[in-house]
Fold:
Amino acid sequence: MPADFISSLFVFILSAFLGIELIKRVSPLLHTPLMSLTNALDAIVLVAAIIIAGRHETRLSTILGLIAVAASFSNMVGGFVITDRMLGMFKTGKAAKKS
Amino acid sequence: MTPADLQQLIDVTYITAAIGFILAIKWLSSPVSAMRGVLVGEIASAIAVTATLFDPQVTHYKWIIITLIIGAAVGVPLGLVKMTAVPQRTALSHAFGALSAALIGIAEYYVVAPNVPKFQMAEIGLEVIIGSLTFTGSIIAAGKLQEWLPQRPITYKGQNYVSLTVLGAALALMVALVIHPEITYLFPAMIGVALIFGIMLVTPIGGADMPTVISLLNSYAGFSAALLGFVLSNKVLIVAGALDGASGFILSVIMCKAMNRSFTNVLFGAFGQVQPKVAGAKEERPVKSASPEDAAAILAAANKVVIVPGYGMAVAQAQHKVRELYDILTKKGIDVRFGIHPVAGRMPGHMNVLLAEADIPYDKMMEMDAINGDLPQTDVALVIGANDVTNPAARTDQSSPIYGMPIIDVDKARTVMVIKRSMAAGFAGIDNPLYYLDNTMMLFGDAKKFVSEIVRELSGGH
Structure:
């Protein structure tokens, strides 16, 4: 078993447990924004896509990497835009009257 | 700066990004801090991506810039869709996320092939299988939600066995690749089988199960990104993927509980099929119907009103009229709140977003458990476009397919008013005894039109 795997597993287990604890506390009001936000965060695979595409090793790996760049960046941008929009709509009674 | 220094700097930005991601989700615990959470998430992502562009491994920029622009051109419109279209947008973004994770795994394989170390082959194989099946599964889910594909579950005899065999075949191909990495043609075969399995996984699920499916796909998309992090030893992918995977998993569990069903039941049960027995046995029973004038008079005389919205309200585009009704009743000093079932929309929390869009304050949106205790003291429960989530048969009738499902106990209110187009059965094809109760009044008509007539009556009369 490679040493990298052990440290990756370590990070994974800690993050998953932390995620479960944090997400349990997210208000059910915000479950839709939660899904769009985690989607946008997940789009950080973009960094791996940039490296695969930018390394320019084979024609195939570059093309696949570039498609991944477009797909993940669209998720990142779109996910943040829609999460922002949705959260902007949530107002309390007082704030809603002011606006 | 030497390349080694630069690499370390990039690693620092990845750690920063991971911290930002965790804070982003932490601050989503309340609508007050949620905006700050998104901002932190955006900054964290921007830092990590910018740093990566300076990675010494990256030597070719032209096409990366072009594809980033394409990504933004696709992403921004997808961020600006209508709130009713958010579920299909979300399914599509699961598809994109899974697609990018799968493609990177595939590219990595072909860079290393045919001399792939066994352990790495297993990681790549698993990652590509999950990414591929999530991709096609999410496309099917998006198609169903967009109503391009039939929403009813499509099933055939022995389906579960066929599906499991296909999944088994994909896993068998992966094992074969681990043992014989040099047989490279097995790899595209494995991808193809996984893609087919994704279609077979989601096609038989539909109807009321869509919120669960979308959460499950969210979970798979997250785990495929985390697995990619294993393949590339990239820890920020593991953190983001684990958070996303955990989120999808928890939402799936919440959705399953809200429908009193188990995971296996959702995956293999094909809920939402037409129930021929129930539909056939339907008898003509008397119902009481009322006019907008009657409804307005009863509402005006109430002290406490609970509105129970369902997806039908959004389909009729009635939420803005409902907001007017809320305003006019609140001005009369009537306490108006909204009772929201966890599966009321087409994805978790969807109904809250639809109401928030109509400027209904979030402190008036109550969860099912919070509102149920108050319903016996409620004068009027007004059901708009919801059906199965108010069906008292879930509490009383053991033979009902939804028996045991937690519902909003509108039948306990003094008066129940149900706005409904006709007496047709709901999404799950189950008859609703609520409509025949003595304290129930049926308001037949289009939700938007009916609510605006009530509003006109209330504002004109006083």
